[in-house]
Automatic annotation (TrEMBL):
PANTHER family documented for this protein: CD166 ANTIGEN, CELL SURFACE GLYCOPROTEIN MUC18-RELATED
Gene3D superfamilies per the UniProt record, alphabetical: Immunoglobulins
Record protein name field: Activated leukocyte cell adhesion molecule
Keyword Disulfide bond: yes
Location, primary (coarse class): membrane
UniProt record, GO biological process: adaptive immune response; cell adhesion
Subcellular location: Cell membrane; Cell projection, Axon; Cell projection, Dendrite
UniProt keyword terms in alphabetical order: Adaptive immunity, Cell adhesion, Cell membrane, Cell projection, Disulfide bond, Glycoprotein, Immunity, Immunoglobulin domain, Membrane, Repeat, Transmembrane, Transmembrane helix
Name of the gene: ALCAM
Membrane topology: Single-pass type I membrane protein
TM ranges: 523-545
GO cellular component, one term: dendrite
Length: 578
């Protein structure tokens, strides 16, 4: 059935939805912001136009915006409260600029076709955060045993109205007859509709309220629920008489040591506090008149004793005992000490203190497990020693003395040699001990090419080694020369030609020596077995054996390194002749 345009307008002007209907769409807005209300209806086919209205308290509608779906034009009704504040989009979303408290209404979106009129209400709620509460009309001071006005907590421009709560030191103040009296007023601005909350507090303080922090909190509602805002805390001066005198030692440390500065502070528990006191020092019969402090600088151990202070009329007094802790250390010997290797050096670190002290030794920045004892000095004993002591439970009281120990020694040399695995060269090592560090030189007597120049290991605990790699064509003599400020030491070693087998001396490496000797024995056994196998092979192998024997015979008449090498060469010559 079709409905004429005039009938549709009559229907639009008469329809309304009860504000008590359930499930209404709600839009929360912030005061001053833009209210955005999408039309809750789905735009139907054949839409002619859409309209927005709001409902008066008596239920009568007030139309405010119209948009035609065909002509694409927008019309806004002449409603003074919404002049120049409305905007209706193509999807029939209504926007209201500069939200006001008076915008809290029930708005209705209407969509009209030729056959039907659909409408859906939207509830607008406006919220305004109040100003931060502040405590005004504050009392200049508070006196004990007297109920007086402490101040007023004021929070302005809230919507909806808020509530105010007083706090002392973070705890809620509840009304108590003649002790805590609270009065709350809420005033609404007729123009803006905003609330101002004012809460006054009358309070009877006690002396414990000195330095107490009073504050107030306003509770209000926003779009997301209940919120709070707190004022800046306020501290009031509370006056009460002095009932007790107290003496303190500043700084407030459990221990005092020699060299500290001490301040004695005397105070009365009244407010305002007393300004002058009498201080009684050990050994003094009369009190010393002073302000609330008495200073002693660079105290010594003889300052230990009882100290007192009182009011100037001597009506009240308090006392305290001061103990000045001390710590003495004597290291013998100390400073720089030079000794020879093998000598003895007695060392002692003597402590004198006001209580038990902890003593420990440090060598070259590493803490030692035991005190040093030198019955026969070695190079590794050299270093920087520190005897340090601390007084238990006395912070900052520590003493230390140092000993720089130098262990000197003439150069000592031990030489070793070994044939390298490639059988083409030999490594000769000169193991050197001594301090100051000896300088090492090498000389070679005989014919042979140096494969690698000399290399030195790191100098540690007075020891290091220098090595040379050589490929001797004949027997040679290598000489290692080590020299420091104390002496020059020379040691030589004979080395056989590279093609002559010899027993290599193991390097001096502690527990590894036995393993290396075993390895060398295995190597000799292997060579012997190999020679026996060679003897069984005919043809080319026998020819190689003869050639090797002739090569060895060329070295028979040359000077060999030692008696055992000469014997080996004679045996080789004898075999070649037969």
């Amino acid at each position: 059935m079709k409905i004429s345009g005039s009938k549709i307008l009559k229907i639009v002007s008469s329809l309304s939805v009860s504000p008590l209907a359930l499930g209404l769409y709600t839009v929360n807005a912030i005061y001053g912001d833009t209210i955005t209300m999408p039309c809750p209806l789905e735009v139907p086919d054949g839409l002619m136009f859409g309209k927005w209205k709001y409902e008066m308290p008596n239920g009568s509608p007030v139309f405010i915006a119209f948009r035609s779906s065909t002509k694409k034009n927008v019309q806004y009704d002449d409603v003074p409260d919404y002049k120049d504040r409305l905007s209706l989009s193509e999807n029939y979303t209504l926007s209201i600029k500069n939200a006001r408290i008076s915008d809290e209404k029930r708005f209705v979106c209407m969509l009209v076709t030729e056959d039907d009129v659909s409408e859906e209400p939207t509830i607008v709620r406006v919220f305004k955060q109040p100003s931060q509460p502040e405590i005004l009309h504050q009392a200049n001071l508070l006196e004990t045993e007297k109920l007086q006005m402490l101040g007023e907590c004021v929070s302005r421009d809230s919507y909806p109205e808020g509530n105010v709560t007083w706090y002392k030191n973070g705890r809620v103040l509840h009304p108590v007859d003649d002790v805590v009296v609270i009065n709350l007023q809420k005033i609404v601005d007729r123009t803006t509709g905003l609330f101002t909350m004012t809460s006054s507090l009358q309070y009877m303080p006690t002396k414990e309220d000195l330095n107490a922090k009073f504050s107030c909190i306003v509770t209000y509602f926003g779009p997301s629920g209940q919120k709070t805002m707190q004022s800046e805390p306020v501290v009031f001066d509370v006056h009460y008489p002095t009932e007790k005198v107290t003496i303190q030692v500043l700084p407030q440390s459990s221990t005092i040591k020699e060299g500290d500065n001490i301040t004695l502070k005397c105070s009365g528990n009244g407010n305002p506090p007393p300004q002058e006191f009498l201080f009684y020092i050990p050994g003094e019969t009369e009190g010393i008149r002073s302000s609330d402090t008495y200073v002693m600088t660079d105290v010594r151990r003889n300052a230990t004793g009882e100290y007192k202070c009182s009011l100037t009329d001597k009506s009240m007094m308090d006392s305290t005992t001061i103990t000045v802790h001390y710590l003495d250390l004597q290291l013998t010997p100390s400073g720089e000490v030079t000794k020879q290797i093998g000598e003895a050096l007695p060392v002692s670190c003597t402590i004198s203190s006001s209580r038990n002290a902890t003593v420990f030794w440090i060598k070259d920045n590493t803490r030692m497990q035991t005190s040093p004892s030198f019955s026969s000095l070695q190079y590794q004993d050299a270093g920087n020693y520190v005897c340090e002591t601390t007084l238990q439970e006395v912070e900052g009281l520590r003493k230390r003395q140092t000993l720089k120990l130098i262990v000197e020694g003439k150069p000592q040399i031990k030489m070793t040699k070994k044939t390298n695995t490639n059988k083409m060269s030999k490594t000769i090592i000169c193991h050197v001990e001594g301090f100051p560090k000896p300088a090492v030189q090498w000389t070679v007597t005989g014919s042979g090419s140096i494969v690698n120049k000399t290399e030195e290991t790191k100098y540690v605990n007075g020891k290091f080694s220098s090595k040379i790699v050589i490929a001797p064509e004949e027997n040679v003599t290598l000489t290692c020369i080590a020299e420091n400020e104390l002496e020059r030491t020379v040691t030589s070693m004979n080395v056989s030609a590279i093609n002559i087998p010899e027993y290599d001396e193991p390097e001096d490496r502690g527990d590894d020596n036995s393993e290396k000797v075993n390895d060398q024995a295995k190597l000799i056994v292997g060579i012997v077995v190999g020679l026996l196998l060679v003897a069984l092979i005919a043809g080319v192998v026998y020819w190689l054996y003869v050639k090797k024997s002739k090569t060895a015979s060329k070295h028979v008449d040359k000077d060999l390194g030692n008696i055992e090498e000469n014997k080996k060469l004679e045996e080789n010559n004898h075999k070649s002749e037969t």
